[in-house]
Design brief:
Keywords: Transferase
Structural class: alpha+beta
GO molecular function, one term: protein-N-terminal-alanine acetyltransferase activity
Radius of gyration: 24 Å
Largest sheet: 8 strands, mixed
GO cellular component, one term: cytoplasm
CATH architecture of the largest domain: 3-Layer(aba) Sandwich
CATH topology of the largest domain: Aminopeptidase
Protein name: RimJ/RimL family protein N-acetyltransferase
Number of helices: 11
CATH class of the largest domain: Alpha Beta
Distance between the termini: 67 Å
Strand order of the largest sheet: 1-2-3-4-5-6-8-7
Helix content: 25-40%
Strand content: 25-35%
Number of strands: 16
């Protein structure tokens, strides 16, 4: 890269200067930067920043890559940094990365900088850019999608951690032939970040829900109807909570907590599993804590989720299932508007190597329009 400056919408990519050292040190020493840039020294001092500007930047350019300061186009204040390295000339590809200081976050800085750098790099010799993010960094994943990057998969053990461990990384890519427009999502965000009917409130599952989810999924009857019927380990619980938003952004599943709207206390969970987008069919599943059963919460939650799915996604069929003996769950689905459709023999794994039948229910958008709610208890 020989161009000294790249202009984007609301940002300017320029060369790092010696007087950027203090701001660069503050940015790299921030806890979020330290979490997702484990190769950086901790603490990251002004001395480290001065060496970074004097040595690392030049070395990256010498190796065929680039490192730019992200600056405010009006004040020239340092907002962050962006660049690419790991250039493979024979494949005309490279790996892009970026960071934004805490004083400049939630202003669209990263997305604007990534769009500007990507457009420039892909019109000056490169044909493929890769972007790797941690599973629990949904902010970075949103930046990638907004800048026209497509989620491609997961690279196992791709990132060395600080404790000699290795972390899986979610891979996004953008090609020279891509439009650069934001990538459409199969499962959009909830309007206003929640769904509610005044009695229950649904919100996305997140990192703060590990204790609640462990209690819920550890209930013996919940375990018995899980697939497979095995209580999840603490590691699986943590992974589910910390990766929930990444799965939502990927369009594969939307995990929600059912709260008592009056108290804000978590009462259960409900999820949308979009495993078959080609046929536009998704599945829902739910569980409730014993103290909140018999109050109509899962029926209300199922109906709220169904209305959101049919209004905001391209799903045309919602399915759900219950083992034949789980009459309560079947009644929940019927009151939420679902219709019994089939009995699938020995579909589900049961305890000790046994198999369970699965009673299948289905809901179509027109069912809700013609029949309306059936909340009678």
């Amino acid at each position: 890269m020989t161009i000294a400056q790249i202009n984007g919408t609301g940002v300017r990519l320029r060369a790092f200067r010696a007087d950027d050292a203090d701001a660069l040190a503050a940015g790299f020493d921030d806890p979020i930067s330290q979490r997702f840039l484990p190769q950086m020294p901790r603490p990251f001092t002004t001395g480290h920043a001065e060496r970074y500007i004097a040595e690392r930047v030049a070395a990256t350019f010498a190796e065929g890559g680039a490192l730019y300061a992200i600056a405010d186009p009006d004040t020239d204040e340092l907002l962050g940094g962006i660049g690419f390295d790991k250039v493979v000339p024979s494949r005309r590809q490279a790996e892009v990365g970026y960071w934004v200081g805490p004083w400049a976050r939630r202003r669209g800085v990263a997305s604007a900088a990534l769009r500007a750098l990507s457009a420039h790099a892909l019109s000056h010799g490169l044909e493929r850019l890769e972007l790797l993010t941690h599973w629990d960094n949904p902010v970075s994943q949103r930046v990638a999608l907004a800048a026209g990057y497509t989620r491609e998969g997961v690279r196992r053990g791709a990132e060395p951690g600080r404790d000699d461990s290795r972390e899986d990384m979610v891979v996004f890519t953008r090609l020279a032939t891509d439009s650069g427009e934001p990538v459409p999502r199969l499962l959009p965000d909830l309007p206003g970040a929640e769904l509610t009917d005044g009695v229950v409130r649904l919100r996305p599952l997140g990192p703060g829900d590990t204790d609640f989810l462990a209690e819920l999924l550890g209930q013996p009857d919940v375990v018995a109807t899980s697939v497979p019927p095995v209580a999840p380990t603490p590691q699986r619980i943590r992974r589910r909570c910390f990766r929930a938003e990444a799965h939502w952004l990927a369009g594969t599943r939307a995990d929600l907590v059912i709260e008592d709207a009056a108290t804000g206390e978590p009462a259960g969970d409900i999820g949308v599993y979009y495993d078959d987008p080609h046929t536009q069919q998704a599945m829902i599943g739910y569980s409730m804590l014993p103290a909140y059963r018999g109050r109509g919460f899962p029926t209300r939650a199922a109906q709220l989720v169904s209305l959101w799915v049919f209004a905001e996604t391209d799903v045309v069929r919602l399915i759900a299932g219950a083992v034949p003996g789980n009459v309560g769950s079947q009644r929940v689905l019927e009151k939420a508007g679902f219709h019994r459709e089939a009995l699938l023999r020995s579909r589900l794994p049961g305890p000790d190597g046994t198999r369970n039948d699965d009673v299948q229910f289905v809901l179509l958008a027109e069912d809700l329009l013609t029949e309306g709610p059936r909340l009678d208890g």
